[in-house]
Every structure is written in C-alpha cells, then in structure tokens.
Amino acid sequence: MAAISLLNPKAEFARAAQALAVNISAAKGIQDVMKTNLGPKGTMKMLVSGAGDIKITKDGNVLLHEMQIQHPTASLIARASTAQDDMTGDGTTSTVLVIGELLKQADLYISEGLHPRVLTEGFDLARAKTIEVLDSLKIPIEPTKEGLLDVAKTSLRTKVHPSLADKLTDVCVEAILTIKQGDQQIDLHMVELMEMQHRTAADTSLIRGIVMDHGSRHPDMPKRLENAYILTCNVSLEYEKSEVNSGFFYKTAEEREKLVAAEREFIDNRVKKIIELKKKLCDGTDKSFVVINQKGIDPPSLDMLAKENIMGLRRAKRRNMERLALACGGVAMNSVDDLQEEHLGWAGLVYEHVLGETKYTFVEDCKKPNSVTILLKGPNKYTLVQLKDAVRDGLRAIKNAIDDRAVVPGAGAFEVAASQALQRFKEEVKGKLRLGVQAYAEALLIIPKTLAINSGFDSQDTIVKLFEESTALGEAVGLDLSSGEALKPADAGIFDNYVVKKQIINSCTVIASNLLLVDEIMRAGMSSLKG
Amino acid sequence: MTAREILSFQFGHYSNFIGTHWWNIQESNFSYDQDHPSDINHDVLYRQGETQRKEVTFTPRLLAVDLKGTLGYLSEQGNLYEECDSEESNSLWENKDLEVVTEPAPAKSPFIQSLEANAGESARKFDLESEVNSWVDYLVPRFHPRTINILKQYKHACTSQPFDIFNYGLNIWKNAQYSEDFCDKIRSYVEECDMMQGFHVILDSTDGFAGFGAACIQYLRDEYGKSILSFPAIDGKSSEPSAANLIKVVNTALCWQSIGEHSSLFSPLCAGTSGWLPSDVPREFANLTYNRDLKYHSSALLATALDTVTLRYRNKAYPASALSDLCADLNKLGRKAAAISLSLPFPMTVKRDLIDILDDFDGSPWTSLTPSCEITTDKNMQSIVLRGVLEERLKRPLHDARKQMAKPAYRCSTVHEMMTMYLAYSCHASATHLTVINEPLKIKNPFPKIFNNNVHANGDIAAWPVGEDVKSVPVMAGLHSGEGLSKMFSSLHDQAMKVKSIKKFHAFQDSGLEQDEYAECLNYLLDCKEAYEDHYV
Lengths: 531, 537
Known about the structure:
CATH topology of the largest domain in chain B: Rossmann fold
Radius of gyration of chain B: 24 Å
Strand content of chain A: 15-25%
Structural class of chain A: alpha+beta
Shape of chain B: globular
Radius of gyration of chain A: 30 Å
Shape of chain A: elongated
Largest sheet of chain B: 7 strands, parallel
Helix content of chain A: 40-55%
Distance between the termini of chain A: 30 Å
Structural class of chain B: alpha/beta
Oligomer: heterodimer
Number of domains of chain B: 2
Number of helices of chain B: 14
Number of domains of chain A: 2
Distance between the termini of chain B: 46 Å
CATH class of the largest domain in chain B: Alpha Beta
Strand content of chain B: 15-25%
Helix content of chain B: 25-40%
Largest sheet of chain A: 6 strands, mixed
C-alpha cells in the first residue's frame, strides 16, 4: 500500500510497473495519433467542430487540445512538442514519435527485469554519441538564395501541397534575404504576414513594402499617391475630453462649449504643424504626403488633412511603426514639434484596396526595404490560418539555416546514419548500459520507418535497403518517397535544420528518461475544491 | 447624426449571460418605425458594416471571450459574413490525405430554432428556464466574425483542469501570440470609430477571467487612454461553504485591485446580497420573483440595470454627454468603485400620478445590485436614469388637481423637474445627475418571465392579480458613490483575510502570485474602504 493512501484514503495511485505501463501506453497512444502525419506524404487532420468551424492541422499540440486528450503523460509529451515548436518551428511530429518509440523499446528490456536507471544512463551515452554523428553530417551553406531554397522547400512540403510549397519557398526565401542586414540576427517580426480573404492560396505574394489592414477614413482623401513622403508618428490627433472636469462644475452649456473649443485648438495646432511641413516640402513639386499615426485622428483633423490632399491613416499597429521606419526610412515621431525632412520616410507608391468592409493600404516601391510583407490570400479563414502556419514555419526554417550556417541531410538519412553509428558504438560500451544504447539505436529508426509506411512501403524492407546502401556507399542515404529506394539527400535537395534535429535528440532523451524513472503516479484531488 | 462609440467586452461565462440579455434587450427596443425613431442612440454600442456580398449589417461592437465548450451550435466566425464559396478550398493539401474528424453537431434550443425559422413574431411559448444551458441558447443578435474569442487552453466546467485562478488568466494574456491577435481585434474596432468615448467591460471576477479581463483593462488604459467603465460580476447562486468559495474571494480581491487601478470607474454586480459570504440571500424586488440559481434569471436583472444606467450617454437628446463625464462625476478622491441600483419595475401604481407616488414613497426607492453594499439615500454622488414615465402621468390638469395643488411639486411641469426635486429633498448632501427617457423598457422573449402577476402589461402595479403578459415597464437605475461602499470593501477584506497565507492554495503560487502581492492587495482593499468614509459631517 502506498504511503499516500495512509494520509489520504481517497487518493488514486499507481506504482512501479503499473506506473510505467500507464506512461508507456500513453506515449504509444499519442504516437499512434500522430504517426500518420509525418513527412510530405503524411496526412493532415481536418477538425470540424459541432458548429462547423474547420481547422486543418498536423501540429501535435493543437491536435491534443482539439481532440480533448486529457491524459497527464500525453500532455507532458505534447508540451515537449510545443517547446520544440517554440524553439525551432519544426519537428513537432518527430518529437512525439521519438519519445513514444524510446519508451516502447525501453519497455522490452524493462519487462525482462532491467532497471530503468540503467537504461536511462545508456540513453544518455547514446545521446552524446548521436550529437557527435549529427555534427559530422553537417553540410555548411552560405546564406544565398540557392543555399536556402532546399531547406525551405523541405520544411514547406510537409505543410502544404508541393506545387504551392514551391511557390511559398520562393516567397519566404526572398523575404528573408531582403530583410537580412549584414551579419545581424534576423528579426522575423520584420516580415509582416497580412491575411486577405480573397481568391486562392496560389495568389500569395511578397510585397516589398508594408501592407496595412486599414485605410483613410475620409471620402475626400486621395486613394493613390506616388512619390510620397511618409510621416510615421505616435501623436494623438483626436480631441479627448479629460475625465478631470466633472459635469457638476459647469453652470451653463456655453461655459462648457468654451472649454471644449479651447482644448480643441490644441489638437488643431498639431495638425497645422504637419500641414506646414507638407507645404514646405511638396508644394510646387510632384511629391505627395502620407501620415500614418499610431494614435487616433478624428474627423475634424481628417478634414484638415484631406483639404491639403494628405492621406491620413490612424491607429496603425504598434509593430508597424518599427516596420515602416525600416521599410521606408525615417523615424517614428512622438511629437510634431521640430519636424524635419530627414524624419520622413519615402515610398514610390501608396494606394488603397477595398475588400468588403476592410480597406488595405499598400506602401510599395521603397528605396531599400528592410521590412517586407507576405500577403497571404485564401478563399476562407481556415485556409488562411493553415497558410499562415506554413509560412511561419518556412521562415523559421530559413532563419535556422542561416543561424546554423549549416544543414543536415533529410529524408531519414541522419537517423539511419546515427542508428548505424550507435550499433558500432555499442560494442565499445561496457556492461548493461549497452542495452540502453541498443534501444536508442532502434528507436531512432522510427523516423525512416514511418516515412516509408506513410508513403506505402514496407518498413522492414526499407530499413534493410537503407542499411545496405549506406554501408556500400559509406555515406548517409535517405529514402526516396516516390520510389521506395535509397537516395542521396544532397542530390535530391532534401535538407533539414541542424538545430531542429539537435533539439529533438536532446529533449526526447530527457523526457523519455524522466518518464521511465517515474515509479509512482498519484492523484490526490482535494474533493472539497470541486464545486 | 454622429455617435460617440463605445467598445464592449465580455470576459467569462456569467458575463456573457449578462451581455446576451443586454444585447437582446437593446434589440427588443429597436424602433423600425420611421416616424417614431427611438430616443436611444444605438450607434454608440453597435456598428454598421458590409459583407462581401454588399449586404449592410448592424452588429454589436463587441468582443466576447469564453472557454471551449460553451458555444454549442454557434460558430466562432458567426454566420453573418458567409464565406464566398470556392470549389477548391482544400487545395493546400492532397484531399485524399485529409483525415476528417467531425464532432457531432450540438442541438439548438427550441427558441433559437424558431428564431432561425422565421424572423417574425415568436408567439410560441418557450420553457426557457429549463432549455437555457448556455448564453448561446437565447442569443438574438448575430455577431461580426471578430466578436467571439475562445480560450483554447481551458475547457468549460472541467474539474480536472479548471480555469479558476486569477493568475491563469493573466498568464494567458502574457502569451504573446494570443494577446497579439486579440489586441489586433481591438485595434480594428477602434480604428473604425471616429469619436470613441471609451470602453465597457463586463468580467467574471471569481475565476481566471478576472485575471484575463484585468490584464486587458490595463492594456486598454496604456494603449488608448480612454474612459473605461468596468463591471466585475459575481454569479449569486447559492453554494455550499467550501474552499472553492475562498478561492473566489481571493480572485475577486485581486481583480478589484487591478481594475481599480486601471479603469476609470467600476461597479461590482451580483444578484445576491453579499456576494461572497456563504449565507447569501438573493436581493428582493417587491414585484419580481426569480430563481437565483438560474444564471438566465439573475443575469437578466443585471442586464436591465446596465442597459438603463448607460442611457445617460446613449440617448439622442444629449449627444454631448459622454462616458468620461459619468466617470468624472463619480470617481473623485480615489473612489473608483460605485454601487449600482435598480428599480424594476419603477412602481407606478395603477391610475395614480407620479406626484402622488413619489409623495407616498417610503423606504428606499431602489434596490442595490452591488454585493455587500446597501445604498443609502444620503451623502451620495449619483447618476440616475429613469425611463418610461410619461408626462401624462406626471400630475392632474389644473381643473382636476384637487389635493395635488397643495403639494409643492405641483409646479413642476416635466418628469425631469419633479424627479430632480424629489431627489433633492429626499437625498441629503447628495449631488445627482438625472437622465429621463420617455420610452419604457420593452419586454420581449427571451427576457425571463419574472414579473409577479400583479403587474400590468404596461408595467403598472396593481394591488390585485391581473395576469397579463408584461409588454413594457418603467425602470429606474443608478450608479451611486457613497458610504455604503466602505462596508463592501471591509466585508471583502474580512473574508479575504481568512486566507492568511496564499501558500495554502498552491495553484496561486504555482501560477506566479507572491505572498507580498496578496498582502498588498488586502491593504488596497482597506485603503478603498477608508476612501469612502465620511468623518466630517
């Protein structure tokens, strides 16, 4: 009897072998759910809610939440997969598969009486060796278009249809190369993803400038301007009655009006300053003027601006302030005092596009855009969401490759190579620890096996074929998903991110070891808390 | 005519119950008659839009948040802005590789079915008391696609992973991705507004939504700097004393501290007398009978009060009146809280005039809907709205006046004048802002049948049962800032003091609450209590 039940007779608990069985079966269960999703031939899951809301995804964490899996172990694994996503943006399915397989392999030995501690120590040795193998497989690349296309394509092809993936690959690589500034870290926030519910996903395109989902709010304002100065500012151009003046303090309506008028003038002066600058710079030339404000602009101010043929946008996204400055030049201003020409940005073309009740404003033809927009198009909301997830992951893959300055061969090649290396390494390990290494070597093969199964091939056949080929050639080979034969990933242009693989190896080993070492699961809910 | 827009928020399940009643009430009071337009300016809370098919829409300017599993038949996107049909919608992935997992479609309540079947008069009787499980079961308005937001991390009424801790909500807000999407929705709404006056926030103050709402209010304050009127709500249903009640008290205390700091004014809502004490009895209304355990009933009372009290800045007669004025009137000297009162129906007795009714009033003219707070008539800063008392019922004409002539109020020629006079005489040392609207509150399905059988169809009170279906009622509601609130704060403080160490409730500590912060929160409650004490008169 467990100690907890002496203290709390209502506590539920599972001990030793039973606890392990619970964890292993949960890991297997979630592995089964995710298995079919791996790789470019894997399936997607389309979740349709009772009310008809659709979500198409293969993201493990989303699936677990949506499919209402409430097993504590499963949610622990799901969290590892979320962490994987946060860190690298890819490899969520692999994480789940590898953890599940590690536990499955471990189960074989534990049921024969091996202590879990020995196994986990073996795992740790194997992990270190696997990282070594990974390092040796690294292929250095240069951050050029050719170098990045392949890794982006490999990532995107597991998320969307191949024909679309190729198009998105181009868009993503171009976007990253445009915003890349020398050797500085790449800030992915400088690629704005703007959704437009319109036409089809194939119309998704890269805009070398900024697209905003709002437009001018005055009928007389210009809808299209060329050769435009851009003033980005965070200055309220809206009269706001303060809360300081209580209504109890006015004697008459006139008194109140007077106060309002005085406060109003304060705002008018700000607008006048902007107009003054516009007159100085643009009058008599073919240049025009656009104000993009993070704060509000009320109708009287809009009116003043419209009379001067200035386009005014209000309530810009906070992050767009930074993006605009990078795309068009200039600085985001917090005050309109002392406005100078060098504070302004410039764009060749600014125009408005109306779609239903939403207006879009395009700021294009910038001189040297260090911030760009990917305009996502799709016929409905769920397509857009799916597209956005895919593009986000594609961008991450490219950024990872640039940060690593290297890629590793994909198509299961790394796992096969690592497994073989571990089999050899096993011979050098003394004692029972080698069983842990053995289990680890087997577990890694789940990736090529699953890839084979999802493409309709026999998993044993494939593994044998890959082993033979790899030994014969003396280098890493992967699986050709269309023929079922071995191929050299480098020739086919299938590359994975180094950091993704590294993260998978590290986190899966830790999680699997932790789960194996659990010898008691208890749940002692405070029943009085319910209600 | 321009309106000064307000953006509304509903955070939490009970808040959505209240909100749904409120939107329903507003929709019942729409006037489609060109010659008799409504006195109420609906553009304040509603927005006009256009679908992709160029159809004009009129939808609430609202962001509602709830947990997974509350929506039932309702689609997150709403069905108003139907998507354009497209033959190749799944082209992002091979269709053959798509595993479809479909949940069964939940049943619609009979009321919703009849609403969808015909837009006309729903003459059928519904048993809404037993049919309403969630607020969507009696929701009349249709929503803009932006409106509904679901917190995917938590499931409604889940016992193993409940969303019952203030900090849980706070942590969700801190999750960058979610709050970015939500903030973008706020921004889109605000961008549309020409002359926004502020925000209405209804939030559940007893569970995780307290934290989520409080974080949102802080964001609104930082980002927009407009007036924020918030209503932390407590479901006044009866409950067994348990540790869960203490958790609710802690959540409420933390919530009030945060919204007290960041909103312009807040008014706690609860249909129960004390809100947090285990021995809670429901508020009593002379001419109403309601079931306190039904969210559907109690939230209707709260919604009526909200609808009426906000008429001050939602009527067409005084377009200059704004939310900021109301807040400025009431939130002086750190008195950020105000009590809310309701008089439903305003007791117009059959065949009698306002002058006599006011004369014979005894006791308090209103019932408080703020927990642990009785509203005294004296020493208040108050903003009161009276709707539905017509000039004809003011007094008798001169030739027929008889005894009324002797009363000083007889010289008053409008309802506003007479009511002001009454309040001036009956409330000592008080400053009152009064708004009068002629239109009564129209009562239509799905407003619950809570009126006693001595109420006439037009809301008049008879001394005998009349058994008519109530069609409209006069209502009075107000916001009051006075001494009673110090009792409210001290009662909450005493109750929260029972949790000596927050460590006992490890869920709070695990999610990031420190003992120091909690002690500070308790002190804050005491500060508030003192802010309402008058020692000088």
